[in-house]
Amino acid sequence: MSYATIALPVPVRQTFTYRVPPELEREAVPGAPVLVPFRGRDTRGVLIERMPTTALESVRDLREVLGPPVLDRHLLELARWVSEYYLAPPGEVVSAMLPGGHRGFAGSRARREAIEDPTVGLAIPERVTLTAPQQAAVRAITDAVSRGGYQSFLLHGVTGSGKTEVYLHAIADALARDDNAQVLMLVPEINLTPQLEARIAARFPGVPMAALHSGLAEQPRALNWLAAHRGEARIVLGTRLAMLASLPNLALILVDEEHDTSYKQQEGLRYSARDLALWRAKQRNIPVVLGSATPSLETWWRAEQTPTTRLTLSRRAQAEAVDDPAGDRRAEAVDHEGQAVDQGERAARAAELALERGQKDAERFGDRAAGDADGEAQRHQQPGQDAIHRGHPWPRSTERASRLAGRQACTPRMWAAVSA
Q1: In a 3-state reduction of DSSP, which class is residue 300?
Q2: What pLDDT shows up at residue 76?
Q3: pLDDT at 293
């Protein structure tokens, strides 16, 4: 007789112990989805560990094993660390690691109908001429992949310096060294995923790739998760939730725009995907690259105080790239798309159009108010008297209407265009 601890999707910071019936001894392994009785009904959970004995006197039997393991030992260790570090319920951590949670994934149509995809050979990537700093950065990362072992890098490059090109060369090297290797690349927001996905697909035609983010429907997301879990997806691109995905052959982690606060989950299970990237890379003994034009304070401090290697790209890779002192995501999209956009010219044109539109609205509003006030004055005017001499308030009403029109012209959209 043996026992098992089960993580259930309930907001309680503990796991639950069940007895493993003899007929389920072989199937009940760590990481397997299971069905157990809980509070008067059957509940899906994930088996965390097996143990020979328990100090509990009354223990109920595990009801059913629903399938093969969905979490390997690395993800179970990650789940345990996240639960302890962020003081999160173990069941909620495990749910976040599965597409659709315990119930959604265990009973999903995508999981039942999943089939093996044909293996596709690795294509030779397009050759792009790199600058000397880019070559040095690529060499440092590829040497770390070749040596093996944990190594963290801060890729500090100004906007337009070609950080994405460094990522692509590092991906190509990691995949070429091992036919089973997987690379995980994180971006801060969903709207950055399609353009980067298109660029990676064009660069590595035929290489299986999976996208993981909350914008995907349940079935495509489950299928992509399964492709990563089975090792079929060689490149996994996604937002912060991809950091919790199952990647059995993970060889390299890339975190673009590491300073972005979007990597912090603010609802439900709270965690920082950037910090998990560092922990997971150390756990798997692989390199991790944090890229940014404006590194976060903690990352900069870490690069100064720890063995983190700083790779600097101080010049633009393209002469037509534009300055962006703030180094924000909008200008950084130039780096993702591989082409420069004159953000200053766009902002100036947008401001000009907004001001012109606001001025026309003010004139139209003022004319309408003046006409209404004039009609009101004529109705109150006595024969032989002038409305202005009688102190009629219509001139002040027109002045007030003009002021209001001026305020309405300064819409939030206009201010956004001016300050962009």
Answers
A1: helix
A2: 95
A3: 93
**Contact status, residue 56 vs residue 96, Cβ threshold 8 Å:** no
Alpha-carbon distance values, 398 to 22, 355, 390, 403 (Å): 89, 21, 17, 9
Strand (E) or helix (H) holding 252:
strand 250-255
Q: Exposure of 245 by Cβ count < 10 A (0-12 exposed, 13-18 middle, 19+ buried)?
A: buried
Q: Which two tokens stand for residue 58?
A: 């009354």
Gap between the Cα atoms of 309 and 362, Å rounded: 57
Q: Smallest Cα–Cα separation from 242: which of 231, 251, 232, 253?
A: 253
pLDDT for 99? 83
Residue 22: both structure tokens together: 């003899």
Task: Measure the CA–CA gap between 110 and 189, rounded to whole angstroms.
Answer: 25
Supply φ then ψ for residue 251, to 5 degrees: -120, -20
Give the pLDDT score at 370: 54
Q: Token pair of 223, please?
A: 């299928």
Q: Split the chain (420 residues) into runs of 10 and give each run's mean pLDDT.
A: 92 93 92 93 94 89 92 94 94 89 47 37 56 94 93 92 93 94 93 85 91 88 93 94 94 95 90 95 96 93 86 76 40 40 50 59 56 53 43 43 42 38
**Residue 67, C-beta contacts closer than 8 angstroms, at least 6 positions apart:** 32, 33, 106, 111
Within 8 A by CB and 6+ apart from 102, the residues are 8, 9, 33, 43, 44, 45, 46, 91, 94, 95
Handedness of CA 105, 107, 113, 115 (dihedral sign): positive
What one-letter code names the amino acid at 141? I
Tell me, yes or no, if the pTM score tops 0.85: no
Separation of alpha carbons 79 and 88, rounded Å: 10
State the pLDDT at residue 268. 85
Question: 200 burial class (0-12, 13-18, 19+ CB within 10 angstroms)?
Answer: buried
Distance CA(73)–CA(48), nearest Å, equals: 9
pLDDT for the residue numbered 339: 39
- The b-or-e profile of 284-311 (16+ CB within 10 A means b, else e) is bebbbbbbbbbbbeebbebbeeeebbeb
Give the E-state strand segments of 94-249 in sequence order. Answer: 151-157, 182-186, 209-212, 235-238
For 309, the 3-state DSSP assignment is strand
Residues 6+ positions from 303 with CB-CB distance below 8 Å: 154, 295, 309, 310
Give the pairing of strands 2-7 and 41-51: antiparallel
